[in-house]
Amino acid sequence: MARPSFAVDPIRLRALREENGLTQAALAARVAQQMSKPETDSLVRHCQRGEETGQTSLSYATALATVLSVSVPLLQGLEGSDPNVYLQQMRTLLAQ
Fold first, then answer.
1. Closest Cα to residue 47, out of 30, 27, 66?
2. pLDDT (tens digit, 9 = 90+) per residue, 4-33?
3. What would the pLDDT profile of 39-65 be if each residue is shown by its tens digit?
4. CATH code matching the domain that covers 6-95, chosen among 3.40.50, 1.10.260, 1.20.120, 2.40.128
Protein backbone atom coordinates (compact mmCIF):
# COMPACT_ATOMS: atom_id res chain seq x y z
CA MET A 1 0.00 0.00 0.00
CA ALA A 2 1.39 3.38 -0.98
CA ARG A 3 1.79 6.21 1.49
CA PRO A 4 -0.93 8.84 1.43
CA SER A 5 0.08 11.83 -0.64
CA PHE A 6 -0.33 15.47 0.29
CA ALA A 7 0.29 18.36 -2.08
CA VAL A 8 1.93 21.72 -1.51
CA ASP A 9 2.56 24.47 -4.04
CA PRO A 10 6.13 23.76 -5.22
CA ILE A 11 6.72 27.32 -6.41
CA ARG A 12 5.58 28.77 -3.10
CA LEU A 13 7.69 26.24 -1.18
CA ARG A 14 10.81 27.23 -3.09
CA ALA A 15 10.07 30.94 -2.70
CA LEU A 16 9.56 30.58 1.05
CA ARG A 17 12.76 28.55 1.40
CA GLU A 18 14.72 31.18 -0.52
CA GLU A 19 13.11 34.05 1.44
CA ASN A 20 14.39 32.37 4.59
CA GLY A 21 17.88 32.11 3.09
CA LEU A 22 17.92 28.31 3.27
CA THR A 23 19.35 25.72 0.93
CA GLN A 24 17.36 22.55 0.38
CA ALA A 25 19.82 20.70 2.64
CA ALA A 26 19.50 23.30 5.40
CA LEU A 27 15.70 23.19 5.16
CA ALA A 28 15.76 19.39 5.32
CA ALA A 29 18.00 19.57 8.41
CA ARG A 30 15.58 21.90 10.17
CA VAL A 31 12.62 19.75 9.18
CA ALA A 32 14.42 16.67 10.52
CA GLN A 33 15.01 18.48 13.80
CA GLN A 34 11.35 19.59 13.92
CA MET A 35 10.20 16.03 13.29
CA SER A 36 12.75 14.57 15.75
CA LYS A 37 14.23 12.46 12.97
CA PRO A 38 17.84 11.98 11.94
CA GLU A 39 19.15 13.96 8.99
CA THR A 40 19.44 11.67 6.00
CA ASP A 41 20.10 11.98 2.29
CA SER A 42 16.59 10.70 1.66
CA LEU A 43 15.14 13.60 3.66
CA VAL A 44 17.12 16.05 1.50
CA ARG A 45 15.81 14.25 -1.59
CA HIS A 46 12.28 14.50 -0.17
CA CYS A 47 12.75 18.28 0.11
CA GLN A 48 13.99 18.43 -3.49
CA ARG A 49 11.06 16.33 -4.69
CA GLY A 50 8.66 18.62 -2.83
CA GLU A 51 9.96 21.58 -4.82
CA GLU A 52 9.78 19.61 -8.08
CA THR A 53 6.37 17.97 -7.76
CA GLY A 54 4.70 19.39 -4.66
CA GLN A 55 4.05 15.85 -3.39
CA THR A 56 4.82 15.22 0.26
CA SER A 57 3.12 13.94 3.40
CA LEU A 58 0.94 15.86 5.82
CA SER A 59 3.49 15.40 8.61
CA TYR A 60 6.31 16.73 6.41
CA ALA A 61 4.15 19.66 5.22
CA THR A 62 3.31 20.50 8.84
CA ALA A 63 7.00 20.46 9.78
CA LEU A 64 7.83 22.60 6.73
CA ALA A 65 5.16 25.11 7.71
CA THR A 66 6.52 25.30 11.26
CA VAL A 67 10.12 25.75 10.08
CA LEU A 68 9.10 28.41 7.54
CA SER A 69 6.72 30.13 10.01
CA VAL A 70 3.69 29.85 7.74
CA SER A 71 0.45 27.87 7.72
CA VAL A 72 -0.05 24.60 5.88
CA PRO A 73 -2.83 26.15 3.73
CA LEU A 74 -0.37 28.86 2.68
CA LEU A 75 2.11 26.16 1.63
CA GLN A 76 -0.67 24.53 -0.37
CA GLY A 77 -1.44 27.80 -2.12
CA LEU A 78 -4.92 27.92 -0.58
CA GLU A 79 -4.37 31.24 1.16
CA GLY A 80 -2.32 34.29 0.31
CA SER A 81 0.60 35.72 2.18
CA ASP A 82 -0.13 38.36 4.80
CA PRO A 83 0.84 41.66 3.12
CA ASN A 84 1.81 43.15 6.50
CA VAL A 85 4.37 40.41 7.05
CA TYR A 86 5.73 40.98 3.55
CA LEU A 87 6.01 44.72 4.16
CA GLN A 88 7.84 44.14 7.43
CA GLN A 89 10.26 41.77 5.71
CA MET A 90 10.93 44.39 3.00
CA ARG A 91 11.50 47.10 5.63
CA THR A 92 13.97 44.86 7.43
CA LEU A 93 15.83 44.10 4.21
CA LEU A 94 15.96 47.76 3.24
CA ALA A 95 17.26 48.72 6.67
CA GLN A 96 20.14 46.28 6.22
1. 27
2. 578 899 988 998 999 999 999 999 999 999
3. 777 888 888 888 899 888 899 999 999
4. 1.10.260
